[in-house]
Amino acid sequence: MRTLKLALLGFGNAGRTFAKILEDKKQEIRENMESDILVTGITTGSRGSLYNPEGIDLKKAWSDLEKQGSFDRNGNDYSQMTSMELVESGEYDVIVEMTPLNIFTGQPATDHLRKAMERGKHAVTANKGPIAWHYKELKNLAEKMNVQFYYETTVMDGTPIFNLKDETLKFCKVTEVSGILNTTTNYVLEELAKGKNYDDVIAEGKKIGFVEADPSMDIEGWDAAAKITALLNVLMEADITPKDVDRTGIEKITIEDIKEADQQGKIIKLLCKGTMKEGKVAASVKPTLVEQGDLMSVIEGTSSVVQITTDLMGKLTIIEHDPDLLQTGYGVFSDVLRIVRNLV
Ligand SMILES: NC(=O)c1ccc[n+]([C@@H]2O[C@H](COP(=O)([O-])OP(=O)(O)OC[C@H]3O[C@@H](n4cnc5c(N)ncnc54)[C@H](OP(=O)(O)O)[C@@H]3O)[C@@H](O)[C@H]2O)c1
Questions:
Q1: Crossing angle for the helix pair 325-343 and 13-24, nearest 10 degrees?
Q2: What is the DSSP letter of 323?
Q3: Same domain, yes or no: 214 and 293
Q4: DSSP one-letter code for 165
Q5: Of 43, 194, 247, 276, which residue has the fewest beta carbons closer than 10 angstroms?
Q6: Average pLDDT of 148-159?
Q7: Pocket flag, ligand 1, residue 99 (CB < 6 Å)
Q8: What pLDDT sits at residue 285?
Q9: Considering the chain, what is the average pLDDT of its residues?
């Protein structure tokens, strides 16, 4: 029986859902992969940390956090360790980066991943910042250190896009990527089309959890720009950052624009695109008129879609329907399993 030790940075929605899947599938992993996966460290921003090289009691960890808002300060595994201290000196085989996104720098997540890989540890990230800002450097580092580095959850949760390209579309060259990658703007455009005013749509969206407390990163297209950058960096080796994306948000779209589109049999969607132009990848995020009935026009609410054009497999379309946190947790889980599988 092999034992793989994980250090989790961040134990919010993504971290706890991943931990629950891991616990739930423990026996199946043992039986099918002859492996035990232990979590030896968990850090948070303000709720304390846990550390035990023999393995943390995951059920207690998430139950304490959900019941009392922090880890048990009197528990044996309670620790004051910061994320960087765990990364630099903890006992683990895989770092799992699930801290909040800084969309303009990719930090501190990039530093965590870099330092872990420099120590010869494998790395998984759900945080798209490092892939949007420092992918090439991190990928080269992983190769140099002979460690595995995966990031499936960073775009469309656990939907297999990077996996698909790596494992199933070997030697296919991706020549174009397009998609609807930001669900908040999708929701806002749909609600505006019902004749509601912008402020009401945002207020209602916040209430039901479709819109962030500060929606500007979504509305101004930054989130979509970070996602298309991550996709293009990995699938087309673009080596760009979100600043290189020709970006227009939906903040200036009015009900009149939506009605005019409707009269032409069209619908407005915030479309992300990456194509080759003069040997370089050109990326854009723009409100775009889409024919009603087109595949892109039927992507509603929290669903998202990506279309990949390849030289050998033509155009492929992948839709993620109405995801919730389970898909996020599964994305991280599938990356960890990939590491286990490749070590066998
Ligand atoms: N939620 C999703 O559906 C989803 C989907 C795909 C990707 N992601 C990505 O996954 C990551 C986590 O998302 P989430 O939804 O789990 O966020 P979340 O619920 O806000 O949780 C973030 C966690 O990170 C902790 N944290 C903050 N700063 C930290 C630091 N310096 N070191 C260690 N932990 C730190 C927070 O602790 P405190 O609570 O104490 O601050 C909390 O435990 C983000 O990068 C996000 O973009 C999320």
A1: 60
A2: -
A3: yes
A4: I
A5: 194
A6: 97
A7: yes
A8: 98
A9: 96
Answer yes or no: 266 catalytic.
no
Same domain as 149, residue 84: yes
Q: What is the tally of structural domains in the chain?
A: 2
Parallel, antiparallel or unpaired: strands 122-125 and 246-247? unpaired
Range of the domain at 304: 174-320
Domain-embedded: residue 112: yes
pTM over 0.85? The answer is yes
| For residue 344, pLDDT beyond 80 | no
- Statement to judge: residues 310 and 241 lie in one domain: yes
Task: Please tell me whether residues 108 and 210 are part of one structural domain.
Answer: no
226 Cβ below 6 A of ligand 1: no
70 CA from centroid of ligand 1 (Å): 15
Catalytic residue among 5, 165, 227, 269: 227
Q: How confident is the model at residue 308 (pLDDT cuts 50, 70, 90)?
A: very high
- Residue 16 CA: which ligand 1 atom is closest? 16
pLDDT category at 96 given cuts 50, 70, 90 is: very high
Helix, strand, coil percent content, the chain, rounded in steps of 5: 45, 25, 35
Helix axes 129-145, 109-118, angle to 10 degrees: 10
Residues 103 and 191 in one domain: no
